[in-house]
Amino acid sequence: MSFAGWLTELWDRLPRPLDPFASFKVKTGLLVGGAILLASFTFWIGASWQFRYALLAALATSLILTQFLAHGMTSPLRQMTAAARAMARGDYSLRVRATSRDEIGQLATAFNQMATDLEAADEYRRGLIGNVSHELRTPITALQAVLENVVDGVVEPDAATMRMALSQTERLGELVTNLLDLSRIEGGAIPLQISRFDVGEFLHDAVEHVSVSASDIPVVIRVSPPDLKAVADPARLRQVVVNLVDNAIRHSSPGDRVTVLATSQVSGLRLEVADQGPGIAPAERERVFQRFTRGATSDGGTGLGLAIARWAVELHGGVIEVMDTGMGCRIRVGIPEMTTGEASA
Length: 345
Fold this sequence. Notes:
single chain, Helix Hairpins, Heat Shock Protein 90, 3 domains, elongated, two-component regulatory system, EC 2.7.13.3, histidine kinase
């Protein structure tokens, strides 16, 4: 470090005597008043001296004291300037020393919070790009390999090969759909389109959409009472059911079954989706609802389904949670009672 840099660092470490005062105006008044008082006092002492020497001493002393006290007032502004320039280069690690309680101290505190938020947003953006790139690369690479083998004559374009290619395109389609839903989440809340519907018909329609590609895993639907009606946003609630059932099927083995239970509660509608798979460890039950989170076993999912389900439930003001069961996984959803004229934003 050069002498100038060392001197600057030492200067920045000097105490700030005016920090305890909460108003910048008070600080300015103290600076001006102190300079005047010091000049007057020095002039009074120097009355017995020659006039020119007393005046020069008063001015020099006032300037030195003013510079010392004003340093603590302007230092946060210089630090904010340096931090802002660093942010422009992509470095969000710099923080402003905020020890004052005045307006500049409040500005420094707000600046530090902004820097923290921007750093978190940048980390999330980088992680999102990395996760999306990885998720896209896997099915695209597999699909490319299948098509190259067909073109090169390594394999015949029979039904099995086409099914393999179709499964990869379906995975790509699922990922694109989930990413579109994720962009809606990032874009802010979406108004709910509330309507009254038959729960049994709704569940059968939603489950049929999932079961087409997983016919070997039976899905049992139980509705109590059988004529149960619900008031909610069918499109958003469909996202919940489809993602929960799809997640349950992915973690099921041949011979297992998935159960979807809908009941009427005093507080509103309760939905439960249970499977006979390995279950979710207690330490992971909160984390599974985060974006791009997978369990210990690879299930071929995108890691977005449960995050989207939680988003749709919370749009209704409801709660989604993993229940403690002895075997398998049971996820419970509670949707509060709503009216057809109600919309949540």
